[in-house]
Write a structure and sequence with these properties.
The chain contains 12 helices and 17 strands. By secondary structure, it is of the alpha/beta class. The protein binds flavin-adenine dinucleotide. Flavin-adenine dinucleotide binds next to helix 1, helix 11 and helix 12.
Length: about 375
């Protein structure tokens, strides 16, 4: 048996590291402070309704990275699902998001039929900027002020607690516009699926290895490191160092679940709210494939209220990226602390906004490199 390794966090980052180490003969102890595996991807079937819900918000798997998909396919079967979102812009009006030709026709009362006409129309609305300094500049230069004010300004304020001017354009850049009929939320990703039996089942298979010992409801303590040769740690890096350079802020989300006897989703999985209300979106889980029995008469609707992580039991979801990257600078101070026996991984360990496929990709590259250098 090779060295003993401690892995902190049973999300994708920790679990991929654990699996690869185990496959290569390392003796792995994987701990998580929560009482379940799968990190923020954890899902379960609600007893009352028999509907599968994702405890930490809807997780849609999308990527163009064939290696990541092939790797995860060893641990799950997949069900095809291409995510689509609509936005409620007033009491009864739902329009597609990301903005496409139909959104523009609805908002401006137009009847455009092709991309060229939409582009020519928008060309008169956009405000060109030489230097893109923040999210507002970027949006104005792509879609103009009116669409920005409807779809992004109040939404950004409630999601990030910041005005568009204070937010990095990297955050809004993730959302693609289409001036055709394209209405998929991730139009550029060639691989879009959900694990057929859920994410938790995928993680159970991923972690099913004789060299992995899983300990749940176990908070990391620095004294644990002494019992191991190395530690991969996906806890928040600022917390590990007792916040010596200050706190790295995160946005969090309060999930408000309700059991409904009437399906008023109109077949939509996610309906966003771009208005001033405190909610950002609602999810109707039964509309996701393999999430409910066909003849179920009870439905679960989950509404989301964003907040600072200090208002939600320190549940850290989204690292805050400001236009001046002030927290990125603080993160670098933590990152530059020299450590021989520990490496920080994952969303909170590296203070990055990462989708699942990105965490899997980074983790595979990182652990393979580490194992090679340790041979
Ligand atoms: C609301 C929401 C929606 C999302 N939707 C999508 C989506 O649709 N598609 C997509 O690709 N990605 C989505 N993501 C991102 C996805 O959740 C992450 O990419 C992924 O979970 C990151 O994995 P991780 O291992 O880095 O972190 P996590 O999954 O957060 O796992 C970290 C684990 O470490 C544990 N931990 C932390 N501190 C300690 C400690 N001191 N001691 C012991 N254990 C500790 C935590 O309990 C946690 O289980 C979403 C994220 C959120 C929050």
């Amino acid at each position: 048996m090779k060295n003993k390794v401690l892995v902190v966090g049973a999300g994708f980052a920790g679990s991929i590291h654990a699996r690869e180490l185990a496959e290569n003969g390392y003796n792995v102890t994987l701990i998580d402070k929560r009482d379940h595996i799968a990190g923020n991807c954890y899902d379960f079937i609600d007893r009352e309704t028999s509907v599968r819900i994702h405890r930490y918000g809807p997780h849609l798997f999308h990527t163009s990275n064939g290696t990541v998909f092939e790797y995860l396919s060893k641990f799950t079967k997949w069900t095809k699902y291409e995510h689509r979102v609509v936005v409620k812009i007033n009491k009864n009006k739902l329009v597609p998001l990301p903005i496409n030709i139909n959104t523009i026709n609805d908002i401006f009362n137009q009847t455009f039929k092709n991309e060229e006409d939409v582009r020519a129309f928008l060309d008169k609305l956009i405000i060109r900027k030489k230097n893109i300094m923040n999210a507002e500049d970027w949006l104005y230069s792509k879609i103009g002020k009116e669409l920005t004010d409807i779809f992004y300004r109040p939404y950004t304020k409630k999601m990030w607690g910041l005005d568009l001017k204070e937010v990095s354009h990297a955050i809004v850049k993730r959302i693609k516009f289409s001036f055709s009929n394209e209405d998929r939320y991730f139009p550029n990703d060639t691989i879009q699926y959900l694990p057929t039996n859920g994410y938790t089942c995928l993680f159970e298979n991923l972690l099913d290895h004789e060299n992995i010992d899983i300990k749940l409801s176990q908070n990391f303590d620095k004294s644990m490191i002494n019992e191991f040769d190395f530690c991969f740690n996906s806890m928040p890096i600022d917390e590990y160092y007792d916040f010596r350079y200050g706190h790295l802020p995160y946005r969090s989300i309060k999930f408000v679940h309700s059991t409904e006897t009437r399906d008023s989703s109109n077949g939509h999985v996610v309906i966003n709210y771009s208005d001033q209300s405190r909610y950002t979106r609602e999810t109707w889980w039964h509309n996701l494939p393999k999430h409910a029995e066909k003849n179920n008469s009870l439905y679960i609707k989950t509404k989301e209220i964003p907040c600072d992580y200090s208002e939600n039991n320190l549940e850290r979801y989204y690292p805050v990226k400001t236009h001046d990257d002030r927290y990125g600078k603080t993160y670098n101070e933590y990152k530059n602390i020299n450590e021989n026996q520990i490496q920080f991984i994952g969303r909170c360990g590296t203070y990055q906004y990462l989708d699942m496929h990105q965490v899997v990709n980074q983790s595979l590259i990182n652990i393979k490199k580490w194992i090679k250098s340790n041979e």
